[in-house]
Amino acid sequence: MSIFEYNGSAVVAMVGKNCFAIASDRRLGVQLQTIATDFQRVFKIHDKLYIGLSGLATDAQTLYQRLVFRHKLYQLREERDMKPETFASLVSALLYEKRFGPYFCQPVIAGLGDDNVPFICTMDCLGAKELAKDFVVSGTASESLYGACESMYKPDMQPDELFETISQALNSSVDRDCLSGWGGYVLIVTPTEVREHVIKSRMD
């Protein structure tokens, strides 16, 4: 078993009209044994910027703490929040710095940039960025997530429709992957509000 599959995970981000959604499953496992069903994989950097970390759970938590530290230093120095593109470059540099003993994480970054244009990207554990205009996925359920998102996504969705689409895609994908699932956590971010939802899924 790959070290990336040790804890199991599913993270997906999707773009709407001046908004975005980021979602993850809630299972923390040790291979096929479930340890917790309320594990957090999506973290807030600031009001309009979030990161989802799939892969090894301990590395995800360590990486998140380092990113929060770097972002706070940036806020103190620049007196403003980091743009999503800048943050993606920071994450990429931080991962590449550790390339000989990498963090076993595959980040998904989602944020609202200038003029509330949504930005999403993902990268591998060495920080090679992959930008997208529609959706990005990572984790053990990524293959079925690609298929579900490909068939359900359509451009310029409003927040409510975006929530419905990403929830259905996440639920149907984790049902096909025994290492992720046990509920989902969905964030819908618009220029004026952030909506959090916990969705139920199969518990077996």
TrEMBL record:
It comes from the Eukaryota. It is found in: Cytoplasm; Nucleus. GO terms for cellular component: cytoplasm; nucleus; proteasome core complex, beta-subunit complex. One of its GO terms (biological process) is proteolysis involved in protein catabolic process. Pfam families: Proteasome. Belongs to the peptidase T1B family. Non-catalytic component of the proteasome, a multicatalytic proteinase complex which is characterized by its ability to cleave peptides with Arg, Phe, Tyr, Leu, and Glu adjacent to the leaving group at neutral or slightly basic pH. The proteasome has an ATP-dependent proteolytic activity. The 26S proteasome consists of a 20S proteasome core and two 19S regulatory subunits. The 20S proteasome core is composed of 28 subunits that are arranged in four stacked rings, resulting in a barrel-shaped structure. The two end rings are each formed by seven alpha subunits, and the two central rings are each formed by seven beta subunits. The catalytic chamber with the active sites is on the inside of the barrel. This is Proteasome subunit beta. The gene is PBC1_0.
